[in-house]
Amino acid sequence: MATERNSGRSVPRGTLAALAGILVIGCLGACSAPTALAPTETVAAPAGPTAAPAPVDEAPVLDPGGSAGENLAYFDHIANGVIGEGGDHSGGQFTSALAAAGFDIARMEVTPDATAVNLAAASVQFSVLMSDGCLIGQWGSEVGYHSIVTPVLASGRCLVGSERPAT
């Protein structure tokens, strides 16, 4: 009979195979997924205090006295609403929606919707000057939507280059 060495003792090869088989069969019964309860079976709830339901995520709100960073989620919420509505996604759509949502239109900047040769711009940027920084959003059909909080430029503005009045 062939044997294997294990811890200095001889064990018949057939015994090892039998043990391995028993382990596999035992695991098949114990390691399988639990069976579902039949429709008529119930599980008793644990005794003791019940946990409060998880809070529902609420839509962000504007904090006029808050920082740019504190208002970024609201800025994004409004911009994503404009994108979700469809349309041409002009800069005016974004600034109008932001103004309707409570941001001060006098503190907004927006880039032109057309290039210098009157082609549709690949993307539009729009911003809101806050007390401590700038909220800047960019939308383009090829680049999607992106936003950022930046420091105010030395010029006191948020966007570099030419802009047009926010409407």
Explained architecture:
With 167 residues, this protein is of the alpha+beta class. The protein has a domain at 68-150. It is built from 3 helices and 6 strands. The protein has helices at residues 13-30, 68-85, 91-100; strands at 3-6, 9-12, 108-110, 124-129, 134-140, 144-150. The strands form 2 sheets. The chain has a 4-stranded antiparallel sheet, covered by helices on one side. Strands 1-2 form a two-stranded antiparallel sheet. A hairpin with a 3-residue loop joins strand 5 (134-140) and strand 6 (144-150). Helix 2 packs across helix 3. It is globular. The model is unreliable at 1-9 and 15-46 (pLDDT under 50).
Mean residue pLDDT: 77
- Radius of gyration (Å): 32 Å
How far is the first residue's CA from the last residue's CA? 94 Å
Instruction: Count the DSSP helices.
Output: 3
Give the ordered list of helices and strands.
Answer: EEHHHEEEE
Overall shape: it is globular
| Beta strands, count | 6
Oligomer: single chain
Q: Low-confidence parts, pLDDT < 50 over ≥5 residues? A: 1-9, 15-46
| Strand residues, percent | 15-25%
Largest sheet: 4 strands, antiparallel
Strands in their spatial order, largest beta sheet? 3-4-5-6
Q: Supply the helix-strand structural class.
A: alpha+beta
What helical percentage do the residues reach?
25-40%
